[in-house]
Structures are given as structure tokens and as C-alpha cells.
Write a structure and sequence with these properties.
By secondary structure, this protein is mostly helical. The protein contains 5 helices and no strands. The structure holds heme C (HEC).
Length: about 130
């Protein structure tokens, strides 16, 4: 008698938990994605590229403005993904990607800015196989 009551309660708890899982996840209202370059970077990029763009699982982003003299190329890499890095195009709007790319170029880059061509003293671009 005790055990029957107990299992009924357990069943109720289990279905309540299922309901919470079914309704609780993935609600767009609950999660406001960050809008600033720093916010996006820290939320989505820093885990792999390091808080200061120094690199970790992913490569250092310090030289991206040298590697990608045209900012559009870096935006394309982030949008479409490259190698081990997932594509971010489905997660962020074009504007958000441009914002975070701009952030990496202005914040981490060694002495270069977003708009000037930094192609002055950088190492030669590696030839890809
Ligand atoms: C899951 C880990 C991971 C996350 C998160 C991540 N990246 Fe990457 N990223 C990588 C890896 C690994 C590479 C190198 C891929 C390759 O070249 O094979 C890379 C490459 C890049 C490159 C090209 C760098 C180069 O030297 O060519 C850029 C730019 C970049 N990531 C920007 C970003 C931005 C911006 C974000 C956040 C929206 C981000 N990444 C989030 C792992 C990650």
C-alpha cells in the first residue's frame, strides 16, 4: 500500500519533470542574445579563442586583420565556419557577425584598425595546400 502510493507520486513527479523539460528549453524570450561585439565574443567565441583572442582550442585572433585584409573575408569565415569551427551564420545575424568580427579586429589586433589596410609588415600569407 505504501509502495503503490509512492510509485504513483513518483510517476507524477516524473511527468511534471518531463513537462518542464518540454516547455522550458529553447524559449527565445528567456534568452536575449548579446548585441555588443564584446558580449557576443565573450559568450560565443572566448571559450575557443581565449578571452583576449590569444588562442586556445582555436587559433589566436590577434592577426586576423593581417590574415584577412578584407574584412568581408573574415566575416565569411565566421559565417560559414572553417575546419573545426562551426558556422555561426545560423546563430547570429549578419550584423552581429560583422559586429563581433569588428571587435576582434579592433580589440585584439596589434596596431591595426578595421578600416586601414594593415598589409605593411605582416608575415606572408601561408599557402594553403
Ligand atoms: C568550438 C570552438 C570555437 C568557437 C566557439 C569559435 N571558434 Fe573560431 N575557430 C575555431 C577553430 C578550431 C578554428 C581553426 C579552424 C581551421 O582553420 O581549421 C577557428 C578559426 C577562426 C577564424 C579564422 C582564424 C584564422 O587564423 O584563419 C576566425 C576569424 C574565427 N575562428 C572567429 C571566431 C569568432 C568570431 C567566434 C565567435 C562567434 C568563434 N571563432 C568561435 C574554433 C572555434
Amino acid at each position: 500500500m505504501w509502495s503503490r502510493g509512492g510509485s504513483r507520486i513518483l510517476g507524477l513527479v516524473a511527468s511534471a519533470a518531463l513537462l518542464v523539460v518540454a516547455c522550458g528549453g529553447g524559449s527565445d524570450e528567456a534568452y536575449a542574445p548579446p548585441k555588443t561585439g564584446a558580449g557576443i565574443y565573450e559568450a560565443s567565441c572566448a571559450t575557443c579563442h581565449g578571452k583576449s583572442g590569444q588562442g586556445f582550442v582555436g587559433p589566436s585572433l590577434v592577426d586576423t586583420a593581417v590574415e584577412y585584409p578584407d574584412v568581408a573575408d573574415e566575416i565569411a569565415v565566421v559565417t560559414n565556419g572553417i575546419g573545426e569551427m562551426p558556422a555561426w551564420g545560423g546563430r547570429f545575424t549578419t550584423k552581429q557577425i560583422a559586429t563581433v568580427v569588428d571587435y576582434t579586429r579592433t580589440r585584439f589586433a596589434t596596431g591595426s584598425s578595421t578600416t586601414t589596410n594593415p598589409n605593411t609588415s605582416g608575415p606572408p600569407a601561408p599557402s594553403s595546400p
